[in-house]
Amino acid sequence: MLYVVGMGAGNRDGMTLAAEQAILTSDLIVGYTKYTEILKEHFPDKKYVSTGMRQECERVERALKEAADKTVSLICSGDPELYGMAGLAYELSVNFPGTVIEVVPGVTAAFSGGAVLGSPLTSDFAVISLSDLLTPAEKIQKRLECAAECDMVIVLYNPSSRNRSDYLKKACDIILRYRSGETVCGYVRNIGREGQESCVLTLAELRETAVDMFTTVYIGNSETKITAGRMVTPRGYRNV
């Protein structure tokens, strides 16, 4: 049995009961090194196998192989379907026909970080990763343009890294073609973990802000505003 588990932002309070139950019933936990280290704080008696960045196929194959004769949890941050291992687990499972897979959803950073900022995602929104490791940069730019033009709130994952320090600035430049520099934005770093920090600011200010891979960025639509110091996108209930 293989559970593909979304562990949320990382703290136990943000983990669903179903995710916790899957981990508790598993004989082995498999995951990215940083995520297994986080889980060890909450489940120190479990057996763990971890792999580093860019070893996703090896990690999933190991989990599928181990699941042949035991119950395994393959853990992902946030939700396992959103930039996680659920799809890859199903793709590779054709080589492990006897393995039963169950996806256990988790709270993705878009929602847990949004709650920190206020309520930026009350209406339609798009989630876009700025990482071009698996997606061509041209396709990412097109998605940014389309989301910006149709006035969706935009959530950016993987906004920067050591080799992509200017990607957020470039994304803001694309969005500024369609939105005012005064557009309400926000970001949250280390959501639900030690050192969590957040900020509400304008799109023009966001363009000049340094962020990292552990930061989730929110770009409001034309109706997003600051209410009681929080980033809020109205749904329109008061107009009905």
Explain this structure.
With 240 residues, this protein is an alpha/beta fold. It has two domains: 2-107, Cobalt-precorrin-4 Transmethylase, domain 1 (3-Layer(aba) Sandwich); 110-232, Tetrapyrrole methylase, C-terminal domain (Methyltransferase, Cobalt-precorrin-4 Transmethylase, Domain 2, 2-Layer Sandwich), CATH 3.30.950. The protein contains eight helices and 13 strands. The protein has a five-stranded parallel sheet with strand order 3-2-4-1-5, with helices on both faces. Strands 7-8-11-9-10 form a five-stranded mixed sheet, with helices on both faces. The chain has a three-stranded mixed sheet with strand order 6-13-12. The chain is elongated and about 55 Å long. The model has no long low-confidence stretch (mean pLDDT 95).
Features:
five-stranded parallel beta sheet; single chain; 30% helix; five-stranded mixed beta sheet; Methyltransferase, Cobalt-precorrin-4 Transmethylase, Domain 2
- Which CATH C-level class of the largest domain is it? Alpha Beta
| The number of domains | 2
Distance between the termini: 49 Å
Helix content: 25-40%
Number of strands: 13
Short description:
The chain is α/β, with parallel strands linked by helices and 240 residues long.
Helix and strand layout, with pairings?
Layout lengths: L1 E5 L10 H9 L2 E5 H10 L5 E4 L4 H11 L5 E5 L9 H7 L8 E4 L4 H9 E2 L5 E5 L7 H13 L3 E5 L9 H9 L8 E6 L7 E6 H5 L7 E5 L5 E3 L2 E3 L8
Parallel strand pairs: 1-4, 1-5, 2-3, 2-4, 6-13, 7-8
Antiparallel strand pairs: 8-11, 9-10, 9-11, 12-13
